[in-house]
């Protein structure tokens, strides 16, 4: 069996409606978009890169992903977020202003040229930084994401990074 990095009993499934992977525990019937507590994030990252990004990339290359874009984002949740918890932090208590300050620090590092991408430099840091989640979203089209996120993502050119984007989920930096 292929190692996913997920805790025992958990598996990766694919949402047909969102065209995104999610995590499911058949024993408890629990499903979630974020990896469950106890996940080996490095192993999961390798598994997802190998098993959940190839077909989408191939379909885009064949012209079948017309109208869709692919993004990654760094999300910092706060206590007013739609779900103020994550697999790393049971209850997120930081204010929205504190979440924005955290993202401003990352944004400054990108603008200064210290780092060039949202996803690569922050993956190792997010494991030790509760409430910060770096996610490769994959391909999505119009009317599939929260409006603020979607508008910001579609306004970017490939390789560009957004300013801070505020949604019901938290605050984001988005890289197309």
Secondary structure elements and pairings:
Blueprint: E1 11-15, E2 20-25, E3 30-32, H1 41-51, H2 54-61, E4 69-76, H3 96-111, H4 123-126, E5 132-140, H5 147-155, E6 165-167, E7 170-175
What does this structure look like?
This protein is 27% helix and 23% strand. By secondary structure, the protein is an alpha+beta fold. The protein has helices spanning 41-51, 54-61, 96-111, 123-126, 147-155, and strands at 11-15, 20-25, 30-32, 69-76, 132-140, 165-167, 170-175. The chain has two domains: 11-52, Ubiquitin Ligase Nedd4, Chain: W; 69-175, Chitinase A, domain 3, CATH 3.10.50.40. Strands 5-4-7-6 form a four-stranded antiparallel sheet. A three-stranded antiparallel sheet has the order 1-2-3, with no helix packed on it. The chain has five helices and seven strands; from the N terminus they run E-E-E-H-H-E-H-H-E-H-E-E. Keywords: Isomerase, Rotamase. It is an enzyme of class 5 (isomerase). Residues 4-38 form the WW domain.
Short description:
It holds the Pfam family Rotamase. The protein has 176 residues and is α+β, with helices and mostly antiparallel strands. The chain is 27% helix and 23% strand.
Describe the structure using short key phrases:
single chain, 176 residues, alpha+beta, Ubiquitin Ligase Nedd4, Chain: W, 2 domains, 4-stranded antiparallel sheet, 5 helices
Strand content: 15-25%
Main beta-sheet annotation: 4 strands, antiparallel
CATH topology heading of the largest domain = Chitinase A, domain 3
Can you list the strand order of the major beta sheet? 5-4-7-6
Relative helix content: 25-40%
Provide the residue-averaged pLDDT: 79
From N to C, what is the helix and strand string?
EEEHHEHHEHEE
Low-pLDDT runs: 54-64, 120-131
Q: What is the count of structural domains? A: 2
